[in-house]
């Protein structure tokens, strides 16, 4: 009997997956747990494995199309076996080409219901105001036609984009979908709904570099060496533990102070950005944190991360120092987190020391925070703690 290949659920927030490519052709032999096709969600790429031994009898899903969770994307069975796919299980993709190309009719309310009154959630109303949208034109999908946050986001994304310049024959068109589109939606939401403030400072890392050299002398395997970024993340975790109001998020029920520190580690990919998470970073020793950071970064670039490794961050660190060209920048908060720390390059800088000008290695720190949750004085205290720990890194590492 033919076995269904289903679109998996790869995380709490996943609703659909896009088929990137089939790895097997119809009639080709497959082994159980052998990858048969590659899909992409808003956060990661994933290979769907065969649920049984046999051959790929039928491809249902089309490359480039989006399908909901549990949709039958194909069938595995024995050579020559006939299948009869129920129509309900092989219906149209999650978003048809018609709706994708003609978003306006689906998004516009031509006649408000309930006697002209438009129902909208407070969050959706605030977002529509921030985006300068007339929410009366948005079709609500909530109870009784109530406009919810997702409706505003969809309307803004599909109906309110500036007119685009038609590509010329010599231009290259890169699809704006998958991870790239998810980043855009997330950043737009963050930029338009969060009052962000960035504090920037140059911090002395003389002691940090000396401490790193001392630690690495005792490490025989070069691959196990501790990087500057490892130390900076460990110090950040220690500082967050001391400042719970920074390690927080805003929810409907109020401001949540997270006791556990789950550090998001912004990692660049060819097609965008991904943020794997070091869970309980404040409870891990330096070497354990270093190994996990290296492992997560490597698997992020190879598409080998699981859903749990991309969820739950309470604070994010974005390090652009490795490019050697950035000192300070303005990182954007990853909602619902309350802050993000941007790290620039380490460079020798002439600074006054006890009335003399001396050269010291310094690193640029850019701390962006949500001003609804964090006041300027609290942010300044957090930065001061970071600088103190940089001057005495053993205090953070030995905590």
TrEMBL record:
<dbReference type="GO" id="GO:0005737">
    <property type="term" value="C:cytoplasm"/>
</dbReference>
<keyword id="KW-0450">Lipoyl</keyword>
<dbReference type="GO" id="GO:0016407">
    <property type="term" value="F:acetyltransferase activity"/>
</dbReference>
<dbReference type="Pfam" id="PF00198">
    <property type="entry name" value="2-oxoacid_dh"/>
</dbReference>
<dbReference type="InterPro" id="IPR050743">
    <property type="entry name" value="2-oxoacid_DH_E2_comp"/>
</dbReference>
<dbReference type="Pfam" id="PF00364">
    <property type="entry name" value="Biotin_lipoyl"/>
</dbReference>
<dbReference type="Pfam" id="PF02817">
    <property type="entry name" value="E3_binding"/>
</dbReference>
<feature type="domain" description="Lipoyl-binding">
    <location>
        <begin position="2"/>
        <end position="77"/>
    </location>
</feature>
<keyword id="KW-0670">Pyruvate</keyword>
<dbReference type="InterPro" id="IPR004167">
    <property type="entry name" value="PSBD"/>
</dbReference>
<protein>
    <recommendedName>
        <fullName>Dihydrolipoamide acetyltransferase component of pyruvate dehydrogenase complex</fullName>
        <ecNumber>2.3.1.-</ecNumber>
    </recommendedName>
</protein>
<keyword id="KW-0808">Transferase</keyword>
<keyword id="KW-0012">Acyltransferase</keyword>
<dbReference type="InterPro" id="IPR001078">
    <property type="entry name" value="2-oxoacid_DH_actylTfrase"/>
</dbReference>
<dbReference type="InterPro" id="IPR036625">
    <property type="entry name" value="E3-bd_dom_sf"/>
</dbReference>
<dbReference type="GO" id="GO:0031405">
    <property type="term" value="F:lipoic acid binding"/>
</dbReference>
<dbReference type="InterPro" id="IPR023213">
    <property type="entry name" value="CAT-like_dom_sf"/>
</dbReference>
<comment type="similarity">
    <text>Belongs to the 2-oxoacid dehydrogenase family.</text>
</comment>
<dbReference type="InterPro" id="IPR000089">
    <property type="entry name" value="Biotin_lipoyl"/>
</dbReference>
<feature type="domain" description="Peripheral subunit-binding (PSBD)">
    <location>
        <begin position="119"/>
        <end position="156"/>
    </location>
</feature>
<dbReference type="InterPro" id="IPR011053">
    <property type="entry name" value="Single_hybrid_motif"/>
</dbReference>
């Amino acid at each position: 009997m033919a076995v269904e290949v289903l679109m998996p659920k790869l995380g709490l927030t996943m609703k659909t997956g896009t088929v990137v490519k089939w790895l097997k052709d119809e009639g080709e032999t497959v082994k159980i747990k052998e990858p048969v096709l590659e899909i992409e969600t808003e956060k990661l790429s994933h290979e769907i494995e065969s649920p049984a031994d046999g051959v790929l009898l039928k491809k249902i899903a089309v490359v480039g199309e989006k399908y909901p969770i549990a949709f039958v994307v194909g069938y595995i069975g024995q050579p020559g076996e006939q299948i009869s796919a129920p129509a309900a299980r092989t219906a149209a993709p999650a978003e048809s080409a018609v709706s994708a190309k003609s978003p306006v009719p689906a998004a516009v309310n031509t006649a408000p219901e309930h006697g002209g009154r438009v129902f909208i959630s407070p969050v959706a109303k605030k977002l529509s105001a921030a985006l300068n949208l007339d929410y009366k034109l948005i079709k609500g999908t909530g109870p009784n036609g109530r406009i919810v946050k997702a409706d505003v986001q969809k309307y803004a994304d599909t109906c309110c984009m500036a007119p685009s310049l038609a590509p010329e024959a010599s231009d290259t068109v890169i699809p704006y979908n998958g991870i790239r589109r998810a980043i855009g939606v997330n950043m737009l939401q963050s930029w338009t709904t969060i009052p962000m403030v960035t504090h920037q400072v140059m911090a002395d890392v003389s002691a940090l570099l000396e401490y790193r050299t001392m630690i690495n002398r005792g490490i025989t395997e070069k691959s196990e060496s501790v990087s500057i970024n490892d130390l900076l993340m460990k110090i950040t975790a220690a500082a967050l533990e001391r400042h719970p109001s920074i390690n927080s998020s805003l929810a409907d029920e109020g401001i949540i102070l997270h006791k556990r520190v789950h550090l998001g580690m912004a990692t660049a990919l060819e097609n965008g950005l991904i943020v794997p998470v070091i869970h309980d970073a404040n409870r891990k020793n330096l070497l354990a944190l270093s190994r996990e950071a290296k492992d997560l970064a490597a698997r992020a670039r190879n598409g080998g991360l699981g859903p749990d490794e991309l969820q739950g961050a309470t604070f994010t660190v974005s390090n652009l120092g490795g490019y050697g060209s950035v000192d300070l920048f303005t990182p954007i908060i990853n909602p619902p987190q309350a802050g993000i720390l941007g790290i620039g390059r380490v460079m020798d800088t002439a600074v006054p020391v006890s009335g003399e000008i001396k050269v010291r290695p310094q690193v640029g720190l850019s701390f962006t925070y949500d001003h609804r949750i964090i006041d300027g004085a609290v942010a300044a205290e957090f930065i001061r703690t970071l600088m103190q720990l940089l001057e005495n890194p053993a205090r953070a590492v030995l905590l």
